[in-house]
Structure formats: C-alpha cells, structure tokens
Amino acid sequence: MIELLRTFTQMEEIHHEFGPPPAVPRRRAAVGIVLRNPFAGRYEPDIVPMMEALKPLGLEMARRTSAALGVPLSAIDGYGKGSLVGTDGELEHGALWHVPGGYAMRALLGDARAIVPSAKKVAGPGATLDVPITHTNASYVRSHFDAFEVRVPGAPQPDEIVFVLAMTSGPRVHDRLGGLRADQISAMDGLR
C-alpha cells in the first residue's frame, strides 16, 4: 500500500528581516515525501488502513525533520503539516496525513500539546503548499503564526501524493503583535 518514490528536505535559516539582526537566527525545516497514490483514479470507500500504514513513516519523517532543523528537540517550538494530492486523487487522500503526521511530531517532541495545523489541496506537478505553523504547546501564541512554503519539484504527478512535515525554532523575526507569549503559556490545554 505504501510505495515511497522520493524524499525532499528543505531548511531555512533566517538571519535578518529589516531592523536589527536577531540574536539567534530562526530556523524552519520541512521534509516532504512523494508516494504513489493507491487510490488514484477510483473511489475507495475504506481508506483508513492506509492511514494506519503511514504511522511508521510519519515517525521517520518527524525524526528527519527535526534532524534537518539542526537544533535540540527542546528548541523546537513550532510545527505544521500538509499534503498535495495529484489530480487523479481526492482531497480526502491528503487528509490521511492528519493522524500519522501530527501524532508523530507530538510523540517525538514529548510534551507538545497544541493541535498540529494542516493544509491540503489537489494540485499538479510543481505546486506549492503553504504549510501553516503554530506553537507546539499553545495555538494562540501569536509570535509563532507562520506558513512555510514547500514545493517538491515535479510532484505530485496525477497518481502521487506529497506528505509534508514542518518544524521551526523560535518566533518570527521581530514579532511584535502582542497577545499571548510563549513564556505565558499556562493552561496546558494546547490553546493558551
């Protein structure tokens, strides 16, 4: 059921965005995998077995994403996930990534409480995906609201799916919109 075709890694280190340079550069990393879509071109009423089969791959991708970020696990404080489904598939095939991708990052990070934001779309080869990012422990921490643009060259072909995990360290450079700060997280409910 799982036919892995390619793996793609993207890492960005942000040293400056107007104003003074940050004391520590912000890092963002994403890992994308390209799979053959076993449901391409047809309707399958029960796709849940594929979601279960993706769980080990989700854990491996979470490890790869954190390694690409190049910081200790304790420094990872933002995450997101997403999927691009080739045109012979349907949006629901991209939704298969919710559990394997989200829970993998939360398990790897240990104490991550916030829901992992997600984006998905049906698209052609070379499409971009803006992977939404929020703080790992509180979705309302404004300094971590972000999106990481990911594109796997030449994918997805009509019979492919691209699954993506993204992680970040640190807030946006020069965040200054107020609201809940990371050092004010207190509710431990994943929101505040």
From TrEMBL:
Gene3D superfamilies: BB2672. It comes from the Bacteria. InterPro entries: AA_synth_put, BB2672. SUPFAM superfamilies: BB2672-like. This is Amino acid synthesis family protein. Pfam families: AA_synth (PF06684).
